[in-house]
Amino acid sequence: MNSRALACCVIALIISFLPLSASDDRIVPGKPLFPGNTIISDGGMFALGFFNPSNSTPAKLYLGIWYNDIPELTVVWVANRETPANNTTSSTPMLYLTNTSNLVLSDSNVDNHVLWRTNNAALGLSTPTAVLLNTGNLIIRSSNGTMLWQSFEHRTDTLLPGMKLRIKYSTPGTDERLVSWKGPSDPSRGRFSYGGDTGTSLQIFLWDDKRVMARSAPWTGLQVTSIHEQQLTGTRTVGGIIMYLAFVTNGEEIYFSYSLSDGSPHTRLVLGYAGEFQIQSWNNRLLSWAVLSKWPSDECNLYGYCGPYGYCDGNAAPAPTCKCLDGFEPANMEEWASGRFIAGCRRKERLNGCGDNFLALTGMKLPDNFTLVGGSKTTFEECAAECNRNCSCVGYQYANVSSGWSGGDVTMCFMWAGELVDTGKVRGGIGGETFYLRLAGMDTTGDKKS
């Protein structure tokens, strides 16, 4: 081999092990990613690299994904939340892709101490590639295009458009949740989490450790809906954002995802370290994140705040407050008058068993602790009759949503027994349901179907 050919081979070998440049959107075997270098998604929206949120010395580095085209560092995904890397003269972290299709984050100078890795079972029959998509999703795929792993399936504190938040019925105990950062400069897992629970399906919860902080209304079959920015902020805007919310269910899972209208600014759903779940949108004029909506928005949103048989009235002026359901009165009038609602309400007249009737309450957030009864083709009359002949049933709700997205009608019959907890009157009635409450001696003439 002549000297020119030898020089070419040496140069080619050096280039193959150089860190990735900022223009790359992928990692391949033999080209690791080191601190100070990033990969950028093809459209320029997201970046993958190492960051130091606390500016600590020596630097505690995390591997993460953030928005590349805004000036404020906003991290949407973190790989090594519990195992930060130390960037010192004796230890340099690196991310590399193995021939067995796994991403590995290790300390390069400490006997390849592994800090984080994916767990694919691929046998290395084809050359893998890790690509950062312009959606913010980091994927590993084989040479034939098969997706082997994706960061969208391993959420941290942020839900991006196209991500799914779901419950897998086939695998109890594997609820997929967002988990907050521990603090503003600490990406490790915090106290708060947001998501579903296989123990009580069709609802979303916000937890403080194991304690429920807040609860959404049960999903009643609506498959696709949209929310305009004005509905979130109460402010009229020109253009603005439209979020399209999708709810999908089958025999194995139920999941929620969302997308944005064309031309919308960056918008994300994030669970903050202080326990607030927020919808945030990037404001290019102010160069900051605007909070379009937050949950819980006030004390009245806290789980069970109004006590048994009490409900939070979102239409009350000047601010939402607790009231008793029709046919009930405060259990402790003195506490209720002072603004303490935990004791809730009690019936004014005892039930007579199965001889009672039902009052239709419209625009309601349905209570917790329900039971689904009947099949997918249950009628309103069958749902009402089922609750009526069950003397322990204190209320029911029937949903019949006709949707071309689902290929037909979706019907659900909810029933409640025992105390009614965490009920609400939805502000403006938007998204509320008709709840049929069992009361003694009620004349149900004029009751309407939901």
Automatic annotation (TrEMBL):
Keywords in alphabetical order: Disulfide bond, EGF-like domain, Receptor, Signal
Protein's cellular compartments: Membrane
GO molecular function: protein serine/threonine kinase activity
Domain Apple positions: 354-440
Ranges where the EGF-like domain occurs: 296-334
EC number: 2.7.11.1
GO terms for biological process, alphabetical: recognition of pollen; response to other organism
CDD domains assigned: B_lectin, PAN_AP_plant
Entry GO terms, CC: membrane
Signal peptide location: 1-23
Membrane topology per record: Single-pass type I membrane protein
Bulb-type lectin domain span: 24-153
Gene3D superfamilies to which the protein is assigned, alphabetical: Bulb-type lectin domain (2.90.10.10)
Catalytic activity from the UniProt record: L-seryl-[protein] + ATP = O-phospho-L-seryl-[protein] + ADP + H(+); L-threonyl-[protein] + ATP = O-phospho-L-threonyl-[protein] + ADP + H(+)
Role, per record: Involved in sporophytic self-incompatibility system (the inability of flowering plants to achieve self-fertilization).
Name of the molecule in the record: non-specific serine/threonine protein kinase
Lineage of source species: Eukaryota, Viridiplantae, Streptophyta, Embryophyta, Tracheophyta
